[in-house]
């Protein structure tokens, strides 16, 4: 299949990211790898969209911290970006609304996938926190490759365009599901897929948790990419939801090793490790994220 014949994909992940873990980044990498292996898709970008503060989840730290941690976690990625749109709305937004926002945004900006177009000047600056004392938790194997604030901010300054958008080399996109009355010689299909773990997929089966109309839009109009987590039985989950069974063709199950260390990493485990002074937190979180948490004293006590 030629590149023009493949569907170009943006992976969008919604969630608390409280804090963002290595497992979240692993999901993006495994999903892109799997989609490319199918020969039907080209992943041209990834978007992390942290939830609004009013979501009401116990222990949710303010979005200014979660945005900064997310930005630190992907500072070395050339394709994953953090989008603050959800956090800057007046109130909590549904996953369906977030997907529709990004679809409409991409339609308005021809050939340019903007991630931070609505970012106000108060958005946290991507930067490496500078600590006077060495971190309590530190992965010494990665110290040699740890970027300094000067290097990182210089990189951002030099490639601001890249930080804001990913520009695929194509004439135009046709969004999946759109009907056009005119044709073009070079038309590429663009699709926004919701990236999630099997735990979110399982939540679709909980009566009353999701609106049926929202599930129809998420799975039917957009589609989802599911990365297995903690040995979940995805086939059993699929059989428990009529909406999931109805739109099986729009659900892409990543063939990942269920015993992979990253499949059991979670934000909850990371917070507990921080509260208990567990050095294994370096297995859960990237070093810049750990540095920021220690600098701001997030999650260190059970109440935070």
Automatic annotation (TrEMBL):
<dbReference type="GO" id="GO:0005524">
    <property type="term" value="F:ATP binding"/>
</dbReference>
<keyword id="KW-0963">Cytoplasm</keyword>
<keyword id="KW-0968">Cytoplasmic vesicle</keyword>
<keyword id="KW-0067">ATP-binding</keyword>
<dbReference type="GO" id="GO:0004515">
    <property type="term" value="F:nicotinate-nucleotide adenylyltransferase activity"/>
</dbReference>
<comment type="similarity">
    <text>Belongs to the eukaryotic NMN adenylyltransferase family.</text>
</comment>
<keyword id="KW-0662">Pyridine nucleotide biosynthesis</keyword>
<keyword id="KW-0449">Lipoprotein</keyword>
<keyword id="KW-0966">Cell projection</keyword>
<keyword id="KW-0333">Golgi apparatus</keyword>
<dbReference type="GO" id="GO:0000139">
    <property type="term" value="C:Golgi membrane"/>
</dbReference>
<dbReference type="InterPro" id="IPR004821">
    <property type="entry name" value="Cyt_trans-like"/>
</dbReference>
<dbReference type="InterPro" id="IPR014729">
    <property type="entry name" value="Rossmann-like_a/b/a_fold"/>
</dbReference>
<dbReference type="GO" id="GO:0030659">
    <property type="term" value="C:cytoplasmic vesicle membrane"/>
</dbReference>
<comment type="pathway">
    <text>Cofactor biosynthesis; NAD(+) biosynthesis; deamido-NAD(+) from nicotinate D-ribonucleotide: step 1/1.</text>
</comment>
<dbReference type="GO" id="GO:0000309">
    <property type="term" value="F:nicotinamide-nucleotide adenylyltransferase activity"/>
</dbReference>
<dbReference type="Pfam" id="PF01467">
    <property type="entry name" value="CTP_transf_like"/>
</dbReference>
<dbReference type="InterPro" id="IPR045094">
    <property type="entry name" value="NMNAT_euk"/>
</dbReference>
<comment type="pathway">
    <text>Cofactor biosynthesis; NAD(+) biosynthesis; NAD(+) from nicotinamide D-ribonucleotide: step 1/1.</text>
</comment>
<dbReference type="GO" id="GO:0009435">
    <property type="term" value="P:NAD+ biosynthetic process"/>
</dbReference>
<keyword id="KW-0548">Nucleotidyltransferase</keyword>
<dbReference type="GO" id="GO:0030424">
    <property type="term" value="C:axon"/>
</dbReference>
<keyword id="KW-0547">Nucleotide-binding</keyword>
<keyword id="KW-0520">NAD</keyword>
<dbReference type="InterPro" id="IPR051182">
    <property type="entry name" value="Euk_NMN_adenylyltrnsfrase"/>
</dbReference>
<keyword id="KW-0472">Membrane</keyword>
<keyword id="KW-0808">Transferase</keyword>
<protein>
    <recommendedName>
        <fullName>Nicotinamide/nicotinic acid mononucleotide adenylyltransferase 2</fullName>
        <ecNumber>2.7.7.1</ecNumber>
        <ecNumber>2.7.7.18</ecNumber>
    </recommendedName>
</protein>
<comment type="subunit">
    <text>Monomer.</text>
</comment>
<feature type="domain" description="Cytidyltransferase-like">
    <location>
        <begin position="14"/>
        <end position="270"/>
    </location>
</feature>
